[in-house]
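Bug report (template v2)

What were you trying to do?
Predict the complex of my protein with magnesium ion.

What happened?
Run completed; filing so the output is reviewed.

Input:
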Amino acid sequence: MEKIKILIADDVLDIIKVVKKTLSLEDETFEVVGEAANGQEVLDLIPKVKPDIVLMDINMPVLNGLEATEKVTKEYPDVAVIMMSVQGEAEYLKKAMFHGAKEFIIKPFNYDSLVETIKITHERHREMQKGLIPREEKDKEGKVMTYFSSKGGVGKSILSLNTAITMSQEKEQKELLMDLDLQFSDISILVNKYNERTILDLVDEGHLNTYQEIKPYLYAYNENLDMLFAPGKPEAAEYISKTSIEKIIKALKHKYDLIIVDTGINFNENTLYVLDHAEIIFFVSTMEIASLKNTKLGLKVMESLGYDNNKVKLLINRSTTKYGVSKRDVEEVFKDSIYAMIPDEEKTVSISVNRGEPFCGKGRLGKSKIEKAIEAMCTDILE
Ligand SMILES: Nc1ncnc2c1ncn2[C@@H]1O[C@H](COP(=O)(O)OP(=O)(O)OP(=O)(O)O)[C@@H](O)[C@H]1O
Ligand SMILES: [Mg+2]
């Protein structure tokens, strides 16, 4: 029979020792696969040690047991959490059960009750897993949405980031923002995160077959939005093949409602794969003549690739009259096929870029024009 794999989490080392000792008396049945001193360590360890059961203390520093339980239950539905608490934490315990804990035991516990509780919880949880899977854990059918342009520097990264943030707040849905500008890693810079892991680490270490494997490489920007950063090394692009991109997207598609992909100026097979598999392509252009010309050609390419008009949406970014080109002129060129115009707003954008703080999603009053335009566009997309 397979052993029941257990992860013990307590900030008091003595408790961990006692539990380990107790469980070692039944080493045919139990295997302690990890120890954690706080909730965050639990979350970090789960993908590595793949426990069946987490014995979780309620009060721990960094990330307490309650929050950790909620995250474990949501993200790793096949792991069952048993809370450990001292007498008198009844209110807490109720909450813990509400947050998804399967059982609880009161400290100090005796040998029999510990062993029995683990066995029964494990058994019950396995049976439940085989049958009914709770509704919220059902697979999602992630849509892919991407930003593309036939000229660089037109605002793909700024727009993909700020729309991702806006949508993650407008609608309770799980989103992933994937930076596929492998050479310049715009997104990590725009959110001021330089030292996080990137898609290069993920591909390098070969952990890209399941969501569970990929998860440690993602950066959680907010509760609904994760990010997969690009490495920002020009040579990295060579290591990341279309096959890897395909694996990553396939593994993540049913974990997210929306996967937003930022692309670079290279029209390579990675980009083509994403364009092919996207439900929506935002084709971004500015009002400069050179950009408009390139866009016209680019849209023809989209047509020859067989993408229909509903899939390709034209975004005119940095809308302004200062180039002597009016909105009307642009509309004439594209014959009413402009999806949205995003205003040119140098101050807001450059402060945001310099600070590494996206301008959307701050929830402040007196929103800038660019923020309002992005919000209106997101509302329309989400409808
Ligand atoms: N709406 C806007 N108003 C003012 N400035 C903008 C706006 N959009 C973009 N910019 C400016 O253009 C610069 C380039 O934007 P961004 O990095 O998003 O372009 P990109 O298309 O991702 O470029 P690349 O092709 O190099 O990846 C920004 O740093 C910002 O200074
Ligand atoms: Mg970019």
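What did the reviewer find?
The domain at 143-382 is CATH 3.40.50.300 (Rossmann fold). The first strand starts at residue 4 and ends at 9.
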